[in-house]
Design goal:
The chain is an alpha/beta fold. It has a single domain, classed as TIM Barrel. Helix content is about 35%, strand content about 15%. Strands 1, 2, 3, 4, 5, 6, 7, 8, 11 and 12 form a ten-stranded mixed beta sheet that branches. A two-stranded antiparallel sheet has the order 9-10. α5 runs parallel beside α6 and α8 runs parallel beside α9. The two termini are about 15 Å apart. The mean pLDDT is about 95.
Length: about 325
């Protein structure tokens, strides 16, 4: 029996977009080689899901082309609607509100997906096969566009998480509710992306586990409702937050114990740079991050095999 896959996904985007609402820099590009080297040490192949500002950064382009040439990773598409051309304002301040792509008119969604796909394919001279939506916002129309433009795998679904509580357009209804979506990979139903179907687009949901038991979650949500608060049950992701390596191991192990044939890790490219995110603001935070990654990757190397999203997709197709 083959080992489960370990899929590393990196949302590859500008520096500290949590706080920078009026400008975008891409200095984190220069911190990616260290992470790439760590991945290669364990024969893991990261997927750099790349957005607009990174795709036009010459240093990132050189880095990514080298990864492609050496077949040590994959470049996919990531789209932040508020700064990805063609620009069509949706709110009074898109850079501050960061509206979801799915909140834009259909023709604007299509033009942005088309522009980014062509930009990435022309820049890196390779077909874009993998994708993750900006701010995790996905719907049936978006999925249909991905299929039309030749994408075969998406990783936007975050099981157990309801993004409707996170606003984009102040006049909108928030992001996508993934509460009842599958936890394991599935070919989507184009008419309902929450269900398995026969489309050519494979969904590879993030590896996420509840923090508490079902009984405790029900109690907490009832208590929140009484206090007038709205939020999803607490969850743990396969994602570093500083000193949480044991928790990440538990999340991965629980998923493997449940029979998942992959575990999926994520981080933002800016989180490898001191000050590039609220979580890792100092050099010591970065060193702690790498200590955690070293332990996690060493542990996973005995239990999984590294694959890109496209490689995982090809394996799933071969087994159909």
């Amino acid at each position: 029996m083959s080992k489960p896959a370990f899929i590393i996904t990196i949302d590859t985007e500008g520096d500290n977009l949590w706080q920078n609402h009026d400008r975008i820099s891409t200095k984190n590009t220069h911190y990616l080689p260290r992470f790439q080297a760590l991945c290669e040490k364990y024969a893991f192949k990261p997927v750099y899901l790349t957005n607009y500002e990174m795709a036009i950064d010459p240093d990132y382009v050189a880095f990514a082309r080298d990864v492609i040439a050496r077949e040590t990773g994959e470049i996919g598409m990531h789209l932040h609607a508020w700064n990805s051309p063609p620009l069509e304002p949706l709110t009074d301040d898109d850079w501050r509100h960061k509206p979801y792509l799915i909140e834009y008119p259909a023709e604007h969604i299509r033009s942005k997906v088309e522009f980014m796909t062509h930009l990435l394919e022309e820049t890196f001279q390779t077909k874009m096969l993998s994708h993750r939506a900006g701010r995790w916002a996905f719907n049936e129309y978006y999925a249909a566009l991905l299929i039309e433009f030749g994408y075969v795998v998406d990783c936007s679904v975050t099981p157990k998480v309801n993004w409707q509580y996170s606003p984009g357009n102040p006049k909108g209804s928030g992001g996508t509710n993934y509460t009842d979506f599958p936890e394991q990979s599935y070919f989507i139903d184009e008419r309902n992306i929450a269900k398995k179907g026969n489309s050519p687009l494979l969904e590879v949901p993030m590896t996420i586990q509840y923090k508490h038991s079902a009984v405790m979650n029900a109690f907490k949500q009832g208590y929140d409702r009484l206090r007038g608060k709205r939020r999803s049950p607490s969850v743990h992701w396969l994602r570093p937050s500083g000193g949480n390596v044991e928790m990440m191991k538990r999340v991965a192990q629980k998923s493997l114990d449940e029979g998942h044939d992959y575990v999926e890790f994520m981080l933002h490219s800016s989180e490898f740079m001191p000050g590039g995110s609220p979580t890792f603001s100092t050099e010591q935070h970065i060193e702690t991050l790498y200590q955690d990654l070293e332990q996690l990757f060493s542990w996973l190397s005995k239990r999984t095999v590294g694959k890109t999203l496209a490689e995982y997709y090809r394996d799933k197709v071969a087994k159909k």
